[in-house]
Inverse folding.
């Protein structure tokens, strides 16, 4: 996946200046007259989610102003798809925890679902400082992108056997154990409810069991529904109850 993150700042990278709304007037007063006139003419007031592209004397992009909330993980999320092509960096380095959230927000904003249609990678990239744990951010972004791909894949190509294949692939990648209980074997193994919900389908229901970690460590069990279905057709829920059902995967 393309996460739009860079390990080093390239020459010519453009600074991103993050401004909390209640600090905007103080920031603006500290700028030169040309910047003040430009920002005022653009109507930028550091509202969360708003941005302003500031040119230099040669009309090239000098900086990007971004209105943010203090602890918003999505503060940079819209920028990979909306900024001009190029490299960017944070003009001031926030504390590590906030820096991680900002970097993750950018990486998640760079996500594109491209299983059925190749898409060019988004052309805006963010260089993070060396103090940032870039590998950790990339792990979080890659895991989230995998789940998004599973959710976004239509039911025709994401039935229980396909979800099982994805889980098995994860198990192989990370040296985990994997087991699946399929169809009528669910009854023999005392999982009657899973069997009852999916028994009418041409795609047999199954329980997926993925185990990873050090057996000596405390045990943590995560249980998910693994919903694989077409949200169209007959249902007993109103549309508002169905809209996000596929995310129950």
């Amino acid at each position: 996946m393309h996460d739009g993150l860079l390990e080093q700042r390239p020459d010519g990278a453009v600074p991103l200046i993050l401004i909390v709304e209640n600090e905007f007037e103080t920031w603006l007063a500290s700028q030169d007259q040309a910047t003040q006139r430009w920002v005022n003419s653009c109507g930028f007031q550091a509202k969360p989610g708003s941005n302003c592209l500031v040119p230099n004397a040669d009309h090239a992009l000098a900086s990007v102003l971004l209105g943010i909330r203090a602890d918003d993980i999505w503060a940079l999320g819209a920028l990979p798809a909306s900024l001009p092509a190029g490299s960017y960096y944070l003009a001031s380095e926030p504390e590590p925890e906030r820096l991680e959230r900002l970097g993750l927000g950018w990486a998640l904003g760079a996500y594109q679902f491209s299983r059925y249609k190749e898409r060019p990678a988004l052309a805006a990239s963010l260089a993070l400082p060396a103090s940032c744990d870039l590998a950790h951010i990339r792990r979080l972004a890659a895991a989230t992108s995998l789940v998004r791909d599973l959710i976004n894949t239509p039911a025709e190509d994401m039935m229980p056997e396909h979800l099982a294949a994805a889980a098995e692939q994860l198990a192989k990648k990370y040296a985990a154990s994997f087991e699946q209980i399929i169809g009528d074997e669910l009854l023999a193994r005392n999982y009657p409810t899973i069997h009852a919900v999916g028994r009418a389908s041409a795609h047999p229901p199954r329980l997926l069991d993925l185990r990873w970690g050090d057996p000596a460590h405390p045990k943590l069990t995560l249980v998910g529904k693994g919903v694989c279905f077409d949200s169209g057709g007959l249902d007993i829920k109103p549309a508002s109850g169905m809209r996000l059902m596929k995310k129950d995967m």
Summary: The chain has nine helices and eight strands.
